[in-house]
């Protein structure tokens, strides 16, 4: 062989499989397996050139052996040599994990994914590898992901069966195509629609390679009659789902007569495998476009990291043996195709390449799979243990109910009494004491800023009017009590709605807090959730009404009479009356604006009282005004203080006693049989428990499956 062709072979083999060259044990084991199977078949391995040059290891000394020839006797030998006991268990392990559906747990498995444009010859390649007939016809033949599990089997009678929708259907070589079509119709429906639900085809046959591949629908851009309008998008979604995981090897089927760079399957694989290190290309229909094929596969313009294999498709009624013989003859004698290095041509070479790639990727990925299984299993067990205990008796229900109630009460004490918010650090609405304090301050500000909208804005006008209307026969210089009470009632009426609004806001807030806490602690028991929520709302409604009655009483008491024993009243009145001289002086000034100019009355205008300056009623009105200002401060303070004490008392009573009694009465009921209702588990918790148990069972079985193979790898493969 010339230097040029030999370099091509070396380059192709380098692209053939990525493996750590220091992995001596695996390399040796696979080489021994190849040699052993070659001896048993009575013919040399499929690629038998340069004994040290194989898909798993390349030494620099191989470059020096220029004149060694490549001997291909594939048409006389089985399609690929079966691996020995070191390798077969690897494939069985992954197939077993796939059968257990461990991928549903988010654990990806090493997979050879077959992709290609429609009519690229994908089915023909798979038929040649499996030695069986697949559905053929116009348009999309593969409408569901077809998982092909090929197993070399010594029995001369093939065993073929399908697995789908939880059942297994046995078939034979003659009827396999129809069986696949019927199964596809059951999965994806009649017509030309597709589905992402897989169909598994198991072929146990003498001479087939030990392979598991996933054949995906061929890529088509233009829907034909009967296909969904978004058929391209649907197919693309399925393909990307399978080829995206790093554990997937992409077998890209390309037609020899097409420009590789514009193939849709290449574009898709390059999205997830930019360097091509996970992509192997199969070039079909080499006999239809032989000229220039050598240049296309050696130039590698589309970055196929695992290299190319050129094949000839089976034609018409050719048997698989005849097709292999014709393929070998074609690549041996054709004036263009015979120039292509024999290490990258033929179905046998493709089979051997795939089997070795598959074995290597499995060895590489298994430790990570074991780790993910263990991590997922541990997480699921922990989550299952955190789920509420499934109650089976009334005594268990009572214990759980009282525990939930106790926890809820402690949370409410923290939130509404002690001002602790460690359970809700980032939820400010659940910082109860702080929010109630804010509402109380706002209430106080609203009381002080409230104005009598029915009164006069001019200083002393209301007082003068009231004094004139409450005159009576009696000693002079005595202020009529009726005048003060009339003015007091008017001021109390002006703020009478503020306390009621405050009560409504506070208890609405408390209700939200109580309901939130109760729901949080009883969320796993739907019957308990509804009962506790109902009890909380009923209790808060009663507490709110009690507070409204209390507020109304306070307002009415303030209207009833003027009384305080607080010495601040006298002191405040005396201080205000000290401004009377300034008031009198301001009355004597005939200006458009005349301010008293001292203390709290500094900006008080009295110019409108100029004409009444000599009348005693003005001084009496000033005295009444100062008394009202001093007393009103006491009233407002009293309304705020009493409200605060009332709320503190009732909230503590609610948390420490009332909420428990109300919920117990609501849940247990008058006949004491209400607890039986909470024995039924909520659908969400029951569903989650069932899902976790199934997942744990699956993962434990998966763990057992990989345990033995990991022991074998540890013993025999220094990965």
Overview features:
single chain; 9 strands; 9-stranded mixed beta sheet; 719 residues; 20 helices; alpha/beta
Provide a compact summary of the structure.
With about 725 residues, the protein is of the alpha/beta class. The chain contains 20 helices and 9 strands.
Decide which structural class fits the backbone.
alpha/beta
| Biggest pleated sheet | 9 strands, mixed
Total helix count? Answer: 20
What helical percentage do the residues reach?
Answer: 40-55%
Ranges with pLDDT <50 over ≥5 residues? 1-78
Rg, alpha carbons: 46 Å
Strand order of the largest sheet: 4-3-5-2-6-1-7-8-9
What does this structure look like?
- By secondary structure, this protein is of the alpha/beta class.
- It has a nine-stranded mixed beta sheet, sandwiched between helices.
- The chain contains 20 helices and nine strands.
- The protein has helices at residues 3-16, 24-41, 88-99, 122-130, 176-188, 231-243, 264-272, 293-299, 320-333, 347-386, 394-418, 432-449, 461-469, 481-495, 497-522, 526-560, 567-577, 580-587, 616-668, 683-716, and strands at 111-116, 146-152, 159-164, 167-171, 199-205, 211-215, 248-255, 279-284, 308-310.
- Helix 7 links the parallel strand 7 (248-255) and strand 8 (279-284).
- The model is unreliable at 1-78 (pLDDT under 50).
- The longest helix is centred in the last third of the chain and has 53 residues, at 616-668.
């Amino acid at each position: 062989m010339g230097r040029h062709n030999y370099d091509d072979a070396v380059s192709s083999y380098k692209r053939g499989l990525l493996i750590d060259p220091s992995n001596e044990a695996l390399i040796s084991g696979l080489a021994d397996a190849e040699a052993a199977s070659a001896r048993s078949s009575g013919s040399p391995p499929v690629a038998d050139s340069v004994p040290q040059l194989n898909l798993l290891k390349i030494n620099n000394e191989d470059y020096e052996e220029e004149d060694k020839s490549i001997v291909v006797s594939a048409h006389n030998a089985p399609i690929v040599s079966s691996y020995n006991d070191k390798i077969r268990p690897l494939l069985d392990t992954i197939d077993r994990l796939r059968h257990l559906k461990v991928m549903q747990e988010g654990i990806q498995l090493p997979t050879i994914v077959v992709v290609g444009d429609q009519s690229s010859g994908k089915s023909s390649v798979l038929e040649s590898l499996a030695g069986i007939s697949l559905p053929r016809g116009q348009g999309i033949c593969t409408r569901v992901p077809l998982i092909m599990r090929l197993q070399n089997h010594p029995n001369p009678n093939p065993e073929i069966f399908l697995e789908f929708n939880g059942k297994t259907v046995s078939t034979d070589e003659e009827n396999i195509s129809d069986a696949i079509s019927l199964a596809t119709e059951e999965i994806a429906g009649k017509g030309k629609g597709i589905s992402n639900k897989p169909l598994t085809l198991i072929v146990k046959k003498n001479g087939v390679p030990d392979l598991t591949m996933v054949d995906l629908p061929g890529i088509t851009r233009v829907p034909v009659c009967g296909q969904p309008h978004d058929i391209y998008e649907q197919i693309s979604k399925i393909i990307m789902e399978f080829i995206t995981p790093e554990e997937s090897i992409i077998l890209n089927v390309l037609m020899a007569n097409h420009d590789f760079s514009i193939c849709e399957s290449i574009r898709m694989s390059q999205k997830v495998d930019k360097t091509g290190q996970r992509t192997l290309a199969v070039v079909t229909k080499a006999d239809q476009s032989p000229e220039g094929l050598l240049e296309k596969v050696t130039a590698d313009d589309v970055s196929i990291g695992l290299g190319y294999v050129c094949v000839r498709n089976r034609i018409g009624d050719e048997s698989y043996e005849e097709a292999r013989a014709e393929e070998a003859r074609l690549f041996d004698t054709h004036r263009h195709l015979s120039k292509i290095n024999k290490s990258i041509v033929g179905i046998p070479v493709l089979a051997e390449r795939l089997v070795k790639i598959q074995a290597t990727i499995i060895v590489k990925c298994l430790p990570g799979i074991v780790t993910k299984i263990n991590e997922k299993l541990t997480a699921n067990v922990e989550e299952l243990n955190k789920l509420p205990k499934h109650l089976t008796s009334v005594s268990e229900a009572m214990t759980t109910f009282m525990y939930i109630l106790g926890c809820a009460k402690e949370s409410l004490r923290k939130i509404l009494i002690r001002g602790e918010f460690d359970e809700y650090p980032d939820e400010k609405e659940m910082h109860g004491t702080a929010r109630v304090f804010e509402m109380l301050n706002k209430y106080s500000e609203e009381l002080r800023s409230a104005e009598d909208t029915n009164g006069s804005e001019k200083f002393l006008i209301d007082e003068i009017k009231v004094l004139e209307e409450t005159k009576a026969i009696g000693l002079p210089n005595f202020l009529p009590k009726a005048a003060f009470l009339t003015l007091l009632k008017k001021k109390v009426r002006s703020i009478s709605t503020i306390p009621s609004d405050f009560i409504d806001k506070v208890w609405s807030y408390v209700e939200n807090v109580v309901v939130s806490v109760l729901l949080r602690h009883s969320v796993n028991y739907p019957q308990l959730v509804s009962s506790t929520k109902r009890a909380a709302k009923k209790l808060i409604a009663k507490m709110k009404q009690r507070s409204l009655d209390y507020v109304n009483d306070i307002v009415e008491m303030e209207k009833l009479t003027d009384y305080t024993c607080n010495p601040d009243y006298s002191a405040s009145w005396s201080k205000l009356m000290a401004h009377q001289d300034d008031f009198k002086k301001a009355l004597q000034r005939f200006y458009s604006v005349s301010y008293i100019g001292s203390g709290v009355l500094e900006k008080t205008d009295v110019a409108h009282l100029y004409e009444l300056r000599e009348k005693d009623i003005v001084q009496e009105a000033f005295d009444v005004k100062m008394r009202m200002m001093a007393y009103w401060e006491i009233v407002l303070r009293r309304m705020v203080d009493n409200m605060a004490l009332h709320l503190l008392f009732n909230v503590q009573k609610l948390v420490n006693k009332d909420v428990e009694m109300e919920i117990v009465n609501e849940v247990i009921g008058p006949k004491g049989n209400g607890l039986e209702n909470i024995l039924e588990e909520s659908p969400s918790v029951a569903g989650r428990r069932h899902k976790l148990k199934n997942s744990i069972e699956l993962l434990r079985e998966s763990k057992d499956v990989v345990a033995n193979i990991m022991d074998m790898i540890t013993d025999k493969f220094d990965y």
